[in-house]
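Cont'd.
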Amino acid sequence: DQQVKQNSPSLSVQEGRISILNCDYTNSMFDYFLWYKKYPAEGPTFLISISSIKDKNEDGRFTVFLNKSAKHLSLHIVPSQPGDSAVYFCSGATNKLIFGTGTLLAVQP
Amino acid sequence: DTGVSQNPRHKITKRGQNVTFRCDPISEHNRLYWYRQTLGQGPEFLTYFQNEAQLEKSRLLSDRFSAERPKGSFSTLEIQRTEQGDSAMYLCASSRGGKPYEQYFGPGTRLTVT
């Protein structure tokens, strides 16, 4: 039972352009949604979160959008930089985090 | 404070041996979580503590797994009679009471069972 789904295993974007990472969920009980970034051989790094009662949260180059009726959220990175190249995990939170399988973002110089 | 730390970073063991991992959370964080990550998957929840109380355990946490947080500070995760299927990255995270969902992860312990 995959409660959080990231259907795109990978995404390639040119430096300076927008990166859009997508995530779908099935569990209506999630209180928050969070995005994490992960480099190889490191633990996930918290990026940005959004409450289930909001539809948008912005932090610098990162914006997360939540569409509750569609049970869909997305992470926008503008402008994309080569250092953003990593695996991005979407997660839903109750007492614990439920993660998707991740999307590998490659930002080409 | 330098964040969540985990030791060892890597562990290679033979099948059937017992292993123990340690996690030191961020000092003011009262919640501590253990997750497991295998190749191509996101982290999967194993268990979490609030202070010294273990409040939830996943069904992934078989009888061979035990976790403790005796004084509400560091935590240990022990795996008894390891199996090859236990090979994974074991991640520890911590969070504070005001924002329990905002979890900060350590670098993980990579376990290889041969």
